[in-house]
Amino acid sequence: MCIRDRYQRRVRGLISGTMEAKIKDQLGDRDPEYVFQLMLDSTKCQKVEGLEPFKCLEILSMNSCGLSSLSGFPKLEKLRELNIADNKLGGADLKILQASDLHQLRRLVLAGNTNIKSLEELEPLASIPSLRSLDLYECEVTKNEEYREQVFTALRSLVYLDGTDRDGNEEDDEEEEDELEEEEDDLDEEEESDLSGDEGAGQYEEDDEEDSEDEDVHGVKRKREDEDDEEESEEE
């Protein structure tokens, strides 16, 4: 093996291990199942790797990583936001996302991936009914005539395209935060309701016990009164 071949193999090894190293650095001592956000921007790599253990991931960012393929992208059923801007991705990579069970994905940022050229290449995204926001800024596909109208028509769940809705109103980043807060509030209310139900059940049990004790006391008292009446009758 010549020096050049050894050098190229070494470079490929460094590239392939970079993403895993950054993931390990962010993970620390935590269990991957309890990690909900990974920021891997500017991690130089050509493919996705090391994400399989992160089943509960909700936000993933891999902007400007030099990705030429999404091969190896795992199934992330709880992912809500995916940022993969300024890479070298094309239409074939959207088919990979289609197969990744992204049932809760709401925001997808593909800006700067100039290899996304045709409207047909966006069709796999129609299989993600939760998708509300799509960013294709500076992608080649944006140069097509009636681009915006056709994308909104093809992706019926979409509310925002490149930062604005059909009427040109800008996307509000706080919208997602509000929805998350509402979900958290709903969970808190359910927990409080469950606790109240448990406390109420406990109170009912206590009341039943007190009623039972009262009945016992009154029963004994009534029995004693009956016995006293019988003694008085015998004396007479």
What are the key terms here?
globular; 236 residues; 7% strand; six-stranded parallel sheet; alpha/beta
Instruction: Please tell me how large the radius of gyration is.
Output: 32 Å
Approximate shape: globular
Estimate the helix proportion, in percent: 40-55%
Say how many strands there are. Answer: 6
- Could you report the average pLDDT, rounded to the nearest whole number? 80
The poorly predicted ranges are 1-17
The description of the largest β-sheet is: 6 strands, parallel
How far apart the termini lie comes to 127 Å
- Order of strands in the sheet with the most strands? 1-2-3-4-5-6
Overall SS class: alpha/beta
Can you write the helix and strand succession as a string?
HEEEHEEHEH
Overview in brief:
By secondary structure, the protein is α/β, with parallel strands linked by helices. The chain is built from 4 helices and 6 strands, in the order αβββαββαβα.
Please describe what this structure looks like.
This protein is of the alpha/beta class and 236 residues long. 44% of the residues lie in helices and 7% in strands. The chain is globular, with a radius of gyration of 32 Å. The N terminus is likely disordered.
